[in-house]
Amino acid sequence: TLPRVYVTRQIPPEGLKILRESGQVQFQLWDSDDIPVPRQELLEKVKGVDGLLCVLTEKIDAELLEAAGPNLKVLSTMSVGFDHLSLEELKKRGIRVGYTPDVLTDAVAELTVALLLTTSRRLIEATHEAKTGGWGTWRTLWLCGYELANSTVGVAIAERLAPFKVKKFIYTDVAPRPELASIINAEYVSLDELAKQSDFLTVCCALTPETKEICNKDLFSKMKNTSIFINTSRGGVVNQEDLYEALSTGQIAGAGLDVTVPEPLPTNHPLFTLKNCVILPHIASASYSTRNAMSALAANNLLLGLRGEPMIKELKL
Ligand code: GLV
Ligand code: GLV
Question: What region holds the D-isomer specific 2-hydroxyacid dehydrogenase NAD-binding domain (predicted)?
């Protein structure tokens, strides 16, 4: 009999088509994209499966892996992020893990630029003013923001910003990455220097124990009060109370967030009361083509893993 697979979401059609037409697996799925599969249902459904295809709303932890049992050999997540996975528990059980980096890079970079410009040029405030009667007359400093021209950007979206006359790109990482940095002529600096020098600081690292809340009081206090902070990685890299403080006291000029803790961010959250904070509902990779590419990659990773072959994109555990 064919290996059994559970898919925790109605994933975009390209991935489902690959699973269906492979003839290699029998799969069941949570047939909705509007709400995640309830935890109890998930714990039931994974019993005895050989493979699991999940999205980032599912916590893959010891409890779930116990519920699945020893048949489970392959986990494929339709995400580049892996902070929803207990890597240690997966490793302990010898479960291979596929994920979907690279295919979403363009979509995320585009959204990051869009969010950066939306925040720095205050577009949400501006459309609101236009619509609600705030547009009394043309005014000389009304809705002024900060421009990219002549700025210093701490960044992973440098290639996209080439037309904007940015003066200098700087970046930080656990170690310099000359092969990437040379393409965009970016200088490696410490996190401290990054905070001090950046006019636009964008975060795009994975959430790990090392990066948890690295964007905190200490970092914001080193930033200029004209600087814009952008996060399209994971909400957990930011201490949100510290960010609220920095934004409300004018320590930094603005923030654009595609990710928060928790998600969804409650509508009565203090960050929503700030005019200089733009919050998006985790849509950085949300283009039709990219979400289908992620779906297809997740499906292919799963099938390859179940055949005992190297996956296209596999996490080293
Ligand atoms: C999106 O946030 C992802 O991890 O793919
Ligand atoms: C702006 O529209 C200007 O004419 O300065």
Answer: 113-284
User: What is the number of other CB atoms lying within 10 angstroms of the CB of residue 97?
Assistant: 22
Cis peptide before 12 (omega within 30 of 0): no
The whole-angstrom separation of Cα 265 and Cα 261 is 6
Q: Which CATH architecture has domain 105-279?
A: 3-Layer(aba) Sandwich (3.40)
Q: What is the pLDDT of residues 38-86, one digit of tens each?
A: 999 999 999 999 999 999 999 999 999 999 999 999 999 999 999 999 9
79 CA closest ligand 1 atom index: 5
Question: Of residues 84, 128, 269, 282, which has the active-site annotation?
Answer: 282
pTM (2 d.p.): 0.92
Measured CA distances, 242 to 201, 210, 215, 270 (Å):
16, 18, 8, 12
Report domain extents, the chain.
4-101+288-306, 105-279
Sign of CA dihedral 104, 105, 108, 111: negative
Q: In whole angstroms, how far apart are CA 87 and each of 61, 65, 68, 96, 160? A: 8, 11, 16, 10, 33
Q: Which protein residue has the closest C-alpha to ligand 1 atom 5?
A: 79
| The residue count for the chain | 317
* 300: its two tokens: 């292919």
What is the CATH number assigned to the segment(s) 4-101+288-306?
Answer: 3.40.50.720
Q: Which ligand is nearest to the CA of 313?
A: 1
